[in-house]
Design goal:
Pantoate_ligase_C, 306 residues, Pantoate--beta-alanine Ligase, Chain: A,domain 2, Rossmann fold, 36% helix, binds pantoate, binds adenosine-5'-triphosphate, 2 domains, three-stranded antiparallel sheet, binds beta-alanine, seven-stranded parallel sheet, 9 helices
Length: 306
């Protein structure tokens, strides 16, 4: 297969076997618009998977689900500076556009949008989207401004790509809740909030949630990192089995630290939709959400209670 890289034009090209190749647009918004119009021609539907690249099976699962939902699939790769804090890993974040494009082409993705920072935030850019309330807890508390950056870039990406469906991983549960809230509050129609689809977390064989940031782990840390999900499953079993939430979370803290993590940002039981903190489990749709640091990585995970 051969990639069709078209920074300045939106015309699809043919792969060497005659199949439509991935069209990659690195820059021009006008070219993106033309490519999107071409895909939508004749009433065809479009599903969109926004990413920051360094693609793994979690991302590719979103792509495969997207293909089931719509005629065409667009993926974006953009490491969004506005969602990184001043001391976070913006510079270290893995970037490997060519390898990512090859993976997407092999999955039959139609269009890859990989804008530069200047295209996304040109000189004079001044607008911020803030989803208040949902962004004050969990990762929002630990990473001030992070979800403003996410909401802002996702809103821009939605306007650029104008998809019928957008797919996000449940691994980033709070992000998904915030994006749905934004889509509802702003009356977005492309996509409509009901077409923002959450895809269950894809895990390694030992339970670790796949994440681009797992690459920061040494071999020893990678083994230890499995302790996070193990401790979560134990805590869930103990809450569902009747233990108090406080005692289950205290044991989870101990277990996660004992497995090699150096600190825990949060470990909470929360209402799955409102993210309200739950001090007792009353049978509602609840999630256990955890963020913890190991080596130079900050890993997150969440699971349903039932
Ligand atoms: N293990 C996974 N299972 C399902 N979806 C995932 C998984 N990992 C990431 N995603 C989803 O892929 C999309 C793009 O995520 P992103 O590019 O930030 O990757 P990531 O692996 O989450 O990276 P990070 O290390 O920044 O958390 C998001 O919707 C995210 O929730
Ligand atoms: C949704 C997203 C692509 C916005 O930059 C990012 O937060 C991510 O990859 O989860
Ligand atoms: N997948 C979450 C993006 C971030 O941590 O910035």
């Amino acid at each position: 297969m051969r990639l069709g890289v078209h920074p300045a034009t939106a015309k699809p090209c043919q792969g060497i076997k005659g199949e439509a190749a991935l069209v990659q647009i690195n820059n021009r918004l006008e070219a993106l618009r033309e490519a999107v119009d071409a895909l939508r021609n004749g009433g065809k539907t479009l599903a969109f998977v926004p990413t920051m690249g360094a693609l793994h099976e979690g991302h590719l699962t979103l792509v495969r689900e997207a293909k089931k939902l719509a005629d065409h699939v667009t993926v974006s790769i953009f490491v969004n500076p506005r969602q990184f804090g001043p001391n976070e890993d913006l510079d270290a974040y893995p970037r490997r556009l060519a390898a990512d494009a090859a993976l997407l082409e092999a999955e039959g993705v139609d269009l890859l949008w990989a804008p530069t920072v200047d295209v996304m935030y040109p000189q004079g850019y001044a607008t911020n989207i803030s989803v208040s309330g949902l962004d004050a807890v969990l990762c929002g508390a630990a990473r001030p401004g992070h979800f403003d950056g996410v909401a802002t870039v996702v809103c821009k990406l939605f306007n650029q790509v104008r998809p019928d469906f957008a797919l996000f991983g449940e691994k980033d549960w709070q992000q998904l809740a915030i994006i749905r809230r934004m889509a509802r509050d702003l009356d977005l129609s492309q996509p409509h909030v009901d077409r923002i689809i959450g895809v269950p977390t894809v895990r390694e064989a030992d339970g670790l949630a796949m994440s681009s940031r797992n690459q920061y782990l040494s071999a020893e840390e990678r083994e230890q990192a499995a302790g996070l999900n193990r401790a979560m499953r134990k805590a869930i079993a103990s809450i569902v089995g009747g233990s108090s939430v406080a005692s289950a979370l205290a044991a989870l803290n101990d277990d996660v630290l004992a497995s090699g993590f150096k600190s825990i940002d949060y470990a909470d039981l929360r209402d799955a939709a409102t993210l309200e903190e739950l001090t007792a489990y009353d049978g509602r749709d609840a999630r256990l959400l955890v963020a913890a640091r190991i080596g130079s990585a900050r890993l997150i995970d969440n699971m349903a209670l039932a």
